[in-house]
């Protein structure tokens, strides 16, 4: 199936870098990156066919969020993503461009963000750790820790600990040089 796009009416505008969770009461809670937000409509990308079909068949959906920590304001952003994970970066990059900034996305097959960025305020990265092995990014770099399992989404259970920080409250974008033992995480 690949990735499916869902749009929901939602009254709260998330800040770039935060996420939401979709809840099936008594069954599961799934964290999802915000793909976009425009005029009261939340755009989400879902990689699971089962969850996409479940969401598509609902008239009402329970959404918790926005959750996590927003990214700092940036005017010039360089971003790196694998084709399977570029949608994690869409909302932060779109907000940079909407605010008059510039964004460059390095991702095979991705064409939306192609500005020339000669210097940057930040680097955004979304890929599986195995795809990042041996790579070095100019700082400040923010890594979307999408491979981390999250349970409570509120920093209570500790399941989402990444290098001494909780992805659900300090992330999902985590500043690379602030994570303890980042080398162990990326290898």
Walk me through what this model shows:
The chain has 187 residues and is an alpha/beta fold. It has 2 domains: 4-67, no CATH class; 76-186, no CATH class. It contains 5 helices and 12 strands. It has helices at 49-56, 90-98, 129-132, 167-170, 182-186; strands spanning 4-9, 19-24, 28-38, 41-46, 62-67, 76-81, 102-106, 122-126, 141-144, 161-162, 165-166, 173-175. A hairpin with a 3-residue loop joins strand 2 and strand 3. It is globular and about 50 Å long.
Output the structural class.
alpha/beta
In whole angstroms, how far apart are the ends? 29 Å
Low-confidence stretches: none
User: How do the helices and strands follow one another from N- to C-terminus?
Assistant: EEEEHEEHEEHEEEHEH
Helix content: 10-25%
Question: Could you give the count of β-strands?
Answer: 12
Integer average pLDDT: 85
Kindly report the spatial arrangement of strands forming the biggest sheet.
Answer: 1-4-3-2-5
Quaternary state reads single chain
**What composes the largest sheet?**
5 strands, antiparallel
User: How many helices does DSSP assign?
Assistant: 5
Cα shape? globular
Measured by DSSP, the beta-strand proportion falls in 25-35%
Determine Rg (CA atoms, Å). Answer: 16 Å
- How many discrete domains? 2
């Amino acid at each position: 199936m690949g990735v499916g796009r869902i749009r929901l009416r939602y009254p709260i505008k998330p800040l770039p870098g935060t996420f939401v969770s979709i809840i099936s009461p008594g069954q599961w809670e799934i964290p999802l990156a915000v793909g976009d937000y425009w005029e009261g409509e939340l755009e989400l990308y879902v990689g699971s066919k089962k969850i996409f079909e479940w969401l598509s068949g609902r008239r009402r959906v329970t959404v918790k969020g926005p959750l996590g920590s927003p990214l700092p304001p940036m005017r010039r952003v360089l971003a790196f993503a694998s084709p399977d994970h570029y949608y994690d970066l869409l909302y932060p990059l779109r907000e940079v461009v909407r605010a008059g900034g510039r964004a460059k996305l390095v991702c095979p097959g991705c064409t939306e963000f192609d500005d020339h960025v000669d210097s940057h305020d930040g680097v955004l990265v979304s890929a599986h750790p195995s795809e990042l092995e041996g790579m070095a990014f100019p700082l400040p770099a923010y890594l979307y820790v999408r491979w981390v399992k999250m349970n409570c989404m509120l920093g209570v259970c500790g399941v989402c600990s990444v290098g001494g920080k909780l992805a659900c409250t300090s992330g999902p974008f985590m500043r690379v040089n602030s994570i303890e033992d980042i080398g162990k995480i990326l290898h």
